[in-house]
Design goal:
about 230 residues; alpha/beta; Rossmann fold; 7-stranded mixed β-sheet; globular
């Protein structure tokens, strides 16, 4: 396969996986939730690592952060024309200087690599002292049946392993948690018994057309940590 075909394949992966799915309001709501949860401030420099189509990067930009993206595809450039989006190999050294970013964010990225610790090490390098990493990935406990429906998935994570990989790289104040992708639940934690019931007693929940049912089952891991202060 030539270099040109490899580049085309990287864009085709996004087209096949997400291209036919319309953009929704969810990326902005998640960005808003994370900004509030972690106290992110306007004009902080945020890198969306593996930014894909760019919808989450756009959410952070719309909330006032200075957005940067890096991906193997150039698709995000079309949605975020005002952002600094660079294209390259996520397996190699990131094209950013040391101690540059306040925040490095990734969603559904680290599970695509055989050696995800390399990517997290690069995130550590480009973060300022005291900088924040936010990593989101499917929770193997709840996604083991569907995990390999995406043929590019390589490394599954549990709540223990995502905690360990951040600590091994050198992050401190590491906090892993299970995360339900339902904005209504973020506001009303009292809904958990209903989510638990749906998760455990509704057959075929992962294939449901109803988002509340599907995302009650499709639990993510959200792990945060900081580089040591100067």
């Amino acid at each position: 396969m030539s270099g040109l075909r490899k580049a085309d394949a990287k864009n085709a992966y996004l087209d096949v996986t997400y291209g036919k799915k319309p953009f929704t309001g969810y990326p902005y709501l998640l960005a808003e939730y994370l900004c509030h949860a972690f106290g992110l401030q306007k004009h902080q420099k945020l890198l969306d690592l593996g930014c894909g189509r760019g919808e989450f990067l756009k959410g952070f930009i719309d909330l006032g952060l200075d957005g940067y993206g890096f991906d193997q595809s150039d698709t995000a450039m079309h949605l975020c024309p005002g952002a600094t989006v660079k294209v390259g190999n996520l397996d190699s050294r990131l094209p950013f200087e040391d101690n540059f970013f306040d925040v490095v964010y990734s969603k559904s990225v680290i599970e695509h690599f055989y050696y995800p610790e390399n990517l997290i090490q690069e995130a550590f390098r480009v973060l300022k002292p005291g900088g924040l990493i936010i990593s989101m990935t499917p929770d193997w406990k709840y996604n083991m049946v569907s995990f390999h429906s995406d043929y590019t998935h390589r490394t599954p994570f549990t709540i223990k392993s995502i905690d360990a990989i951040h600590k091994v790289v050198g992050f401190v104040d590491v906090k892993p948690e299970r995360f339900v992708q339902l904005p209504l639940y973020w506001k009303f934690k009292s809904m958990f018994p209903l989510i638990w019931f749906v998760r455990n007693f509704i057959p075929g929940a992962l294939k449901s057309k109803f988002k509340f049912v599907r995302f009650s089952k499709e639990v993510m891991l959200l792990c945060s940590g900081r580089t040591p202060p100067a």
